[in-house]
Amino acid sequence: MAIETGLRTLLLAQSSITTLAPAQTVGGLSIDAVFLDHPVEGVKAPYVLITLTSHDPYRRFDGTGGTLRRSDVDIDCYASNRPAAIALATAVEVFLRDYVGAAGAPDTINAVLWENARDDVVYLGDGRDARHYVRSLSFIIQHT
Asked: Options 3.30.70, 3.40.30, 2.60.120, 3.30.2000; which CATH number does 3-21+30-143 get?
């Protein structure tokens, strides 16, 4: 399993996150509000988007591969207003910062390092009044 899939499972298991970004019904289907790479068409904010931005299996000094890996992950928290985006991002950050433990077989997280946060506004279509607020969190995850 990829680390981002394990992260999705971890985030969906946290009521502090799913309360702020609950599952939605789209086309008669219940859709969880934590996605990998892109949201399902028709989903509205609030939701969480996980993107793997870099992955590096660490090497030993002799050039052989070790079991420790580093993955850089962006987690974007979308909401209809800035306070809601910040609240959702804070719930994600509080849970993940310094997390150590299982992340779905076979991954185990050894360290989660918070790198930075940034805010943005995404305008929908041509209307400047229709927008999503986004707080993006960047993490470095060391895992085996």
From this structure: 3.30.2000
- Residue 40 CB neighbours (<10 A): 14
Q: What's the number of CA atoms in the CB half-sphere (13 Å) around residue 35?
A: 20
For the question of whether the overall pTM of this predicted structure is more than 0.85, the answer is: yes
Torsion angle defined by CA atoms of residues 98, 117, 82 and 85, in that order, rounded to the nearest 10 degrees: -40
Mean pLDDT of 51-71: 81
Give the whole-angstrom CA distance, residue 109 versus residue 107: 7
Cα–Cα distance measured from residue 94 to residue 115, given in angstroms and rounded to the nearest whole number: 13
Instruction: Give which of 26, 28, 57 is closest to 39, Cα–Cα.
Output: 26
Q: Where are the alpha helices (DSSP H) in the chain?
A: 3-12, 15-18, 82-96
Report the SS3 class of residue 81.
Answer: coil
Instruction: Show the beta-strand stretches assigned E in the chain.
Output: 24-26, 29-31, 34-36, 47-59, 65-79, 101-102, 108-123, 131-143
Mean of the pLDDT values across residues 15-38? 96
**Domain spans of the chain, in order of start:** 3-21+30-143
What per-residue confidence (pLDDT) applies to 128? 66
